């Protein structure tokens, strides 16, 4: 299985490859990619240099152009496609159906990956992307169990890539407007979710309150660590009680499921976190490189989860083990 | 401009569901009615028995019927149901997930608000595949809607104009989770909340609504004051999404404004009487936070 690692900066790209990434995914520094954070991502020139660095070490670069183009500005996204192809990207990761159509027509030989934002959650949807646009790989949404992935693989000829570590969407990706409801900024349109520009922390006599766009997302007792107010990981109130209604503030860590994912036929494992620093990238990539090498060797030793780098120092197997089904 | 009624999103008692549509058929001044269980495949069998009668009544009353597809398709059974829906010779199918496209392309169909169409190139693609009407994603601003409507004049473009706005869909059921039940053994607890389960912030500010695997806004979309701007933008239809209130009167109120017989301001007051205690929102249309509300 290939190990696909994130990079938000040229330095992170080099760290990821030195730490053992088979491929690195990254995006341009504009609204065409779903991690459009200030100070992050690549200029055209940085991408060309990053690709040269990667190819010199036998690694690949996948370019994420995975937001949904703004109406009347689709040329900006098409330009990003053209530039990534020209720079020598090994694959493009695309979510919008109009942009996939453009890639398939304009660059028929370019390898196309279906972004997780395109929400291809079953063999029929995958077959549609394969037959219509010649997609070579699909990044599966984080709503599937390992058994469901295995079932998809039995019916599809397309490669699949799954997330094994990092932030965890509990809603179907690419189909969530919670962030724009509270802030006006959405993953699909602006490439941001629960953006820092709309976050506020307030100290009260009873502790810290975190807010997003004016809505209280969580309240922490004085001794409790105040986490980032990602909307779907907040604590809320209902007639049936208060608590983490959608999901606890945890991250995905599927280290212990690698063998199952391999038997399911998964082609590539993806680490989330283009917004994370080099220390995270280096440690997480090294961890998964070792776990994968151990798996290839046939020994099961040392495959443990990676707690220190997870959100709130808590991890979950997510939907891969559907304890709630 | 057309008025359309979206599918009932909540788990209503089957007889109530049937009677709701019988009354819509007889009394509501809507042109199009989208029916079918699109949120949770487990609920669908309860409505199957009444669906033929409902379709017959609605069509008999001169309404165009659309059959909505499931929003999130993952189980084998759900795939089969979706394929059967797309293959049938019946009312126009409203596609709510791309799963449908493989079997339905080349034949006329509608696109529901759960399919990502954010720009003119994807709208054009869908029209080439056979889409004749498109209800745009609710978070889309009117500036984008206008560009799309101009790019595909052969298709009817619809906007989500009334009702709590669908914001997210998950594989996980939050009604079951709140009741400490598993999804497979949920005992259909969502039926206790015919208008959804209120989710507030910890300081008791109204925020969201839980509807099984779906999350909606607390606030109710109300674009009745934006009709002139929507007409200007080339929008051909307004979608009203059923809430637990008098939807016939809601439809009449919108119709009165469309016909020029009532001012938007007066009509908005009437809507707050019909659906009391729920804030209105129209922020998405203006590219603002979705919960916000500005008078036109």
CATH level-four homologous superfamily name of chain B = Aldolase class I
Low-confidence parts of chain B = none
Q: Architecture of the largest domain in chain A, CATH level 2?
A: Alpha-Beta Barrel
Form type of chain B: globular
Total number of strands of chain B: 12
Helix content of chain B: 25-40%
How does the helix and strand content of chain B classify structurally? alpha/beta
For the largest beta-sheet of chain A, the strand count, sense and barrel status come to: 8 strands, parallel, barrel
Query: How many strands, which pairing sense, and closed or not: the largest β-sheet of chain B?
Result: 8 strands, parallel, barrel
Distance between the termini of chain B: 19 Å
Question: Can you lay out the helices and strands and say which pair or pack?
Answer:
The complex is a heterodimer of chains A (325) and B (296).
Chain A: E1 2-6, H1 10-18, E2 23-26, H2 44-56, E3 60-65, H3 74-87, E4 91-94, H4 97-106, E5 112-114, H5 123-133, E6 137-139, H6 146-155, E7 159-166, H7 178-183, H8 187-190, E8 199-204, E9 207-212, E10 215-220, E11 236-238, E12 241-243, E13 251-253, H9 258-264, E14 268-271, H10 278-297, E15 315-316
Parallel strand pairs in A: 1-2, 1-14, 2-3, 3-4, 4-5, 5-6, 6-7, 7-14, 13-15
Antiparallel strand pairs in A: 7-13, 8-9, 9-10, 11-12
Helix pairs in contact in A: 1-2, 1-10, 6-9
Chain B: E1 2-5, H1 14-27, E2 32-35, H2 44-48, H3 51-60, E3 64-68, H4 76-87, E4 92-95, H5 101-104, E5 109-111, H6 120-129, E6 131-135, H7 142-151, E7 156-169, H8 174-178, E8 197-200, E9 206-211, E10 214-222, H9 227-232, E11 237-240, H10 247-258, H11 264-274, E12 280-281
Parallel strand pairs in B: 1-2, 1-11, 2-3, 3-4, 4-5, 5-6, 6-7, 7-11, 10-12
Antiparallel strand pairs in B: 7-10, 8-9, 9-10
Helix pairs in contact in B: 1-3, 6-7, 10-11
């Amino acid at each position: 299985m290939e190990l696909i690692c994130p990079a938000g900066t040229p330095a992170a790209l080099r760290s990821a490859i030195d730490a053992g990434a088979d491929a690195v995914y990254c995006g341009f520094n504009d609204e065409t990619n779903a991690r459009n954070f200030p100070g992050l991502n690549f200029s055209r020139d940085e991408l060309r240099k990053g690709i040269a660095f990667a190819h010199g070490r036998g690694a690949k670069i996948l370019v994420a152009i995975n937001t949904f183009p703004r109406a009347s500005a689709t040329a900006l996204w098409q330009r990003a496609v053209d530039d990534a192809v020209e720079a020598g990207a090994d694959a493009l990761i695309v979510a919008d159906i109009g942009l996939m159509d453009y890639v398939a027509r304009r660059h028929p030989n370019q390898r196309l990956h279906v972004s997780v934002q395109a929400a291809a959650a079953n063999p029929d949807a995958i077959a549609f992307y394969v037959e219509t646009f010649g997609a070579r790989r699909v990044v599966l949404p984080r709503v599937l169990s390992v058994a469901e992935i295995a079932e998809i693989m039995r019916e599809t000829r397309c490669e699949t890539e799954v997330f094994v570590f990092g932030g965890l969407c509990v809603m179907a990706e690419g189909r969530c407007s919670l962030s724009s409801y509270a802030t006006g900024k959405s993953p699909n349109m602006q490439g941001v979710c629960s953006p820092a520009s709309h976050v506020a922390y307030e100290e009260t006599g009873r502790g810290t309150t975190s807010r997003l766009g004016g809505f209280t997302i969580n309240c922490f007792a004085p001794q409790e660590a105040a986490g980032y107010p990602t909307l779907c990981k907040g604590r809320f109130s209902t007639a049936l009680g208060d608590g983490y209604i959608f999901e606890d503030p945890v991250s995905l860590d599927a280290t212990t499921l690698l063998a199952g994912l391999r038997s399911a036929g998964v082609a590539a494992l993806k680490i989330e976190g283009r917004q994370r620093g080099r220390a995270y990238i280096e440690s997480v990539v090294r961890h998964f490189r070792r776990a994968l090498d151990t798996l290839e060797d046939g020994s099961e030793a040392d495959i443990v989860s990676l707690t220190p780098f997870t959100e709130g120092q808590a991890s979950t197997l997510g939907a891969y083990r559907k304890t709630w089904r | 401009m057309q008025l359309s009624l979206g599918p009932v999103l909540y788990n209503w008692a089957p007889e109530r569901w049937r009677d709701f549509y019988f009354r819509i058929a007889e009394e509501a001044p809507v042109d199009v009615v989208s029916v079918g269980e699109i949120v949770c495949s487990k609920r669908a069998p309860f409505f199957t028995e009444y669906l033929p009668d409902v379709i017959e009544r609605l069509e008999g009353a001169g309404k165009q019927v659309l059959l909505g597809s499931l929003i999130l398709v993952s189980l084998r059974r759900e795939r089969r149901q979706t394929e059967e829906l797309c293959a049938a010779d019946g009312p126009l199918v409203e596609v709510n997930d791309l799963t449908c496209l493989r079997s339905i392309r080349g034949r006329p169909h509608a696109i529901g608000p759960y399919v990502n169409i954010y720009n003119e190139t994807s709208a054009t693609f869908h029209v080439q595949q056979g889409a004749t009407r498109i209800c745009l994603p609710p978070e889309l601003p009117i500036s984008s809607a206008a560009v799309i409507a101009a790019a595909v004049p052969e298709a009817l473009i619809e906007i989500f104009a009334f009702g709590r706005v669908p914001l997210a869909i998950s594989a996980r059921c939050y009604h079951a989770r709140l009741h400490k039940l598993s999804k497979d053994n949920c005992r259909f607890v969502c039926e206790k909340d015919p208008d959804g389960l209120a989710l507030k912030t910890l300081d008791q500010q109204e925020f969201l609504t839980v509807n099984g695997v779906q999350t909606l806004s607390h606030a109710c979309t109300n674009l009745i004051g934006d009709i002139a701007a929507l007409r200007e933008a080339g929008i051909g239809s307004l979608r009203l999404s059923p809430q637990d209130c008098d939807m016939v009167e809601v439809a009449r109120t919108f119709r009165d404004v469309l016909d020029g017989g009532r001012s938007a301001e007066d009509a908005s007051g009437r809507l707050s009487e019909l659906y009391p205690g729920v804030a209105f929102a129209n922020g998405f249309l203006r590219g603002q936070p979705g919960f916000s509300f500005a008078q036109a």
